[in-house]
Design brief:
By secondary structure, the protein is an all-alpha fold. Helices cover 73% and strands 1% of the residues. It has one domain. It starts with a helix and ends with a helix.
């Protein structure tokens, strides 16, 4: 009886209930894992020590990624048998590689070279065994289909870029987690539109795992960070969502997102990529240093210097990213090069507007002070 039910069961026939169950499982596991993480972190003194670059002044547990990982493991284990099992098991394998690397880095510190190799291995597992890769540029710059070897290399580049971009923005309370929550909500919408229930399930489960974390990440007492464990897993998941979305849209030209898939994907991860390229440019061109040299030139540091709180900084950045995604949806029927130009232009303007506004205010204040000094 049970076997027959499982054989003919299709989650798409009960999609709302299915996604609610996935969300609640992840939420429950994540919520109930954090007390143990706090107890172990405090007892074993597994804390993040404030440094010269830190925007925090107190020692804080940094193992929040464990709860996120455990939530996803439980969802994949319990619900994965009724989904695309092969893809989910390989996804879980890649996540496990990054989980243990991130955990070691949070506890003992891991060399960048070993983290980089681990990221390549986790990505290659999915690229090779599922053949999920970026097969073309959708006509951007006149390029449609890529040679296999270049397709694999470019897909690896996208994985490494997004994973490390999310790691780099994890410097303000709630920023990495909130952007990841928004990205998962956006991908849930997209995957439901394309009827990719397996990816929609994982995206919703990730939302469920992030909500208890964000509650604690924003808290003043019993605060916790996701650490490299969490940021690498989240970055890996989102990079897989991007690659999966682009791969499926390229293969099935009847997809409603065929003409806009790369623009929508870019809109979803716009801020992490913008901040990464901006910081690398500043470090290489202006400071003549390695692009991986740590500093306080990130956009979120700029918001803090303007007097914004952590919550205000996170809220402002996430709202702008949501606006960009909505605009990308509205532009999805435009010619693809026009979509790209609009997204890059509007995105850059929106993120620059905050700083320009404060610069104008400061200029007016200085002019007013000088005028008063002259009169006196």
């Amino acid at each position: 009886m049970i076997q027959e039910l499982l054989t003919y069961f299709n989650p798409l026939d009960y999609v709302v209930i299915w996604l609610v169950v996935a969300f609640l499982i992840a939420l429950y596991v994540s919520f109930n894992t954090f007390p143990a993480i706090f107890m172990i972190s405090v007892k074993k003194q597994l804390m993040d020590e404030p440094g010269s670059r830190s925007v925090h002044s107190k020692r804080t547990p940094t193992l929040g990624g464990i709860a996120i990982f455990m939530s996803l493991v439980v969802v994949i284990t319990t619900l994965g048998a009724l989904l695309n099992t092969k893809v989910l098991l390989l996804l879980l394998g890649g996540m496990s590689i990054l989980f243990f690397l991130g955990l070691k880095d949070d506890l003992l510190v891991l060399s960048p070279k070993k983290k980089f190799l681990g990221q390549l291995l986790a990505a290659l597992v999915l690229i090779i065994f599922t053949d999920t890769r970026i097969v073309g540029f959708f006509g951007i710059f006149g390029i449609t289909t890529l040679p296999y070897w270049f397709s694999v290399l470019f897909t690896l580049f996208v994985y490494v870029l997004i994973i490390n971009a999310y790691n780099l923005i994890d410097g303000v309370d709630g920023l990495a987690g909130s952007l990841a929550l928004f990205a998962c909500a956006a991908f849930t919408y997209i995957f439901l539109k394309t009827q990719d229930i397996s990816m929609a399930t994982i995206a919703v489960a990730t939302i469920g795992s992030l909500i208890p974390f964000l509650r604690l990440n924003f808290a003043k007492k019993r605060k916790i960070f996701m650490g490299d464990t969490g940021s690498m897993i989240i970055g890996f998941l989102l990079s897989f969502f991007v690659v999966r979305f682009l791969s499926e849209a390229q293969i099935y030209r009847t997809s409603i997102f065929y003409n806009s898939a790369p623009i929508l994907a870019l809109a979803i991860v716009f801020f992490p990529l913008l901040d990464t390229f901006r910081v690398f440019f500043i470090r290489i061109v202006f400071h003549r240093k390695s692009p991986f040299h740590a500093d306080q030139n990130h956009l979120h540091h700029g918001f803090l210097r303007l007097g914004y709180s952590h919550i205000q900084t996170t809220t402002c950045i996430v709202i702008i990213n949501v606006i960009l995604f909505v605009l990308a949806l509205l532009f999805k029927d435009f010619e693809i090069h026009l979509q790209l130009i609009l997204l890059l232009s509007i995105g850059t303007i929106l993120y620059s507007t905050v700083f320009l506004y404060h610069w104008i205010l400061n200029s007016k204040s200085k002019s007013e002070i000088n005028r008063r000094d002259t009169l006196i």
